[in-house]
Amino acid sequence: MGILPDLSIRQLEYLVAVADTPTWALAAEAVGVSPSALSQGLSELERRVGVPLFDRDGRRRVLRPSADIVLHHARQVVALTGDLSRWAQRTKAADEGSIRVGMIDIAATHHFPDELQAFRAQHPDLSFHLRVSSSRPLFEMLVKGDLDLAVCVETSKPFPGIVTQPLLEEELAVYRQGGGKLGPARNWGPWVLFPEDSHTREIISNALLAKGAPVEVIADSPQPEVLREMVNLGLGWTVLPTRQAESGERPLTPSETLARRTLVLAYRSSAATVPAVVALSELLQESVINSVSSVRNSNP
C-alpha cells in the first residue's frame, strides 16, 4: 500500500467551492476566506495530490476534466464530514439543530401535510427546512449532502451512494377534457405531460407505449396544477396521480388507470444516523400504514 497524501478537508472544501461557483471570488466568499488564501490552499492541494488539477485560461485557473475523480472524492469527504458534524451537534443537543427534508409536491401538500405539522410541533427546538421540488433535483441534492432525507418517485436507475425504502404506491390515470370511456389506444392524445427528464414521465411513457398509444407531447410542465388546467382548456390529454388530478378547483374526471408509481424514502447510504431523520421517517411510514388499514376496514 502506497503512502496516502496528507489532504486536509478544508482544501477539499475549497475544491468543491471552486467547482460549484462561477468565480474564485465567490468561491472564496462561500468558504469564508480571501481569494489569495483560496488560491494558496488549492496550490497546496495540487502539490499533495501530486497531479495537476488546473489549467491556465489567461489569468484564470480552470479545473481540468481529469480532475473529476479528485472532485468526486472531495464531494464525498465534504458531505460525510458535514454529516458527522451535524450528527455530533444533534447528539449533544438531543433534538436541537436542524433537519433538511426534500419532498415532491404531492407528498408535501397531499399525502403528509398533517404529519409534517405534527413533527414540527413535537420538535419545537429543531430547525426544520423543507425543500419541495421534482425527484431528480432532490436526489442530486441528497448526493451532494444538501438534504438529510427525501421523499421522491422511485427511479429506474439508482443514484450513487443513495439507498431507498418504499413508502407508498399511487395510481396514475389518463385524463382528457370531459373524461369518459376511451377509444383504441392508437387514437389517444396528444399529450401534456411532466418534463422529459422526470421519473414519472418515464413511467407514463413506458405504460403508454406498452398499450400501443402514441406519445405525442405538445406541452410539458413540472406542475400538476398546470397540466390539469391544460386538460380543462382542451389543449391535450394528460396522466396524473389521481390524488392531484381529482382534487382542488376544476378537478378532472378519470378515464382509465394507466400505471402505478412508488414513492420512496431516500437517504445517503454513508450518512451518520440522525435521530430526527429516523423519527420523521417512522412518522411517515406509520401514517401510510394507518391509511392503508383505514381503507381496508372501510371496505371489508
Task: For the structure shown, list the relevant keywords.
two-stranded antiparallel sheet, alpha/beta, 46% helix, D-Maltodextrin-Binding Protein, domain 2, 300 residues, globular, 6-stranded mixed β-sheet
Report on this structure.
The structure is a single chain. The chain is an alpha/beta fold and 300 residues long. It has three domains: 9-76, Winged helix-like DNA-binding domain superfamily/Winged helix DNA-binding domain (Arc Repressor Mutant, subunit A); 80-168 and 263-293, 3-Layer(aba) Sandwich (D-Maltodextrin-Binding Protein, domain 2); 169-262, 3-Layer(aba) Sandwich (D-Maltodextrin-Binding Protein, domain 2). 46% of the residues lie in helices and 22% in strands. It has eleven helices and ten strands. The chain has helices at 9-20, 24-31, 35-49, 68-92, 105-111, 113-122, 135-144, 199-211, 224-232, 242-245, 275-298, and strands spanning 54-57, 60-63, 97-103, 126-132, 149-153, 162-175, 191-193, 217-220, 238-241, 254-268. The strands form three sheets. A six-stranded mixed β-sheet has the order 4-3-5-10-6-9, sandwiched between helices. A two-stranded antiparallel ribbon has the order 1-2. A hairpin with a 2-residue loop joins strand 1 and strand 2. Helix 1 (9-20) packs across helix 2 (24-31). The termini are far apart.
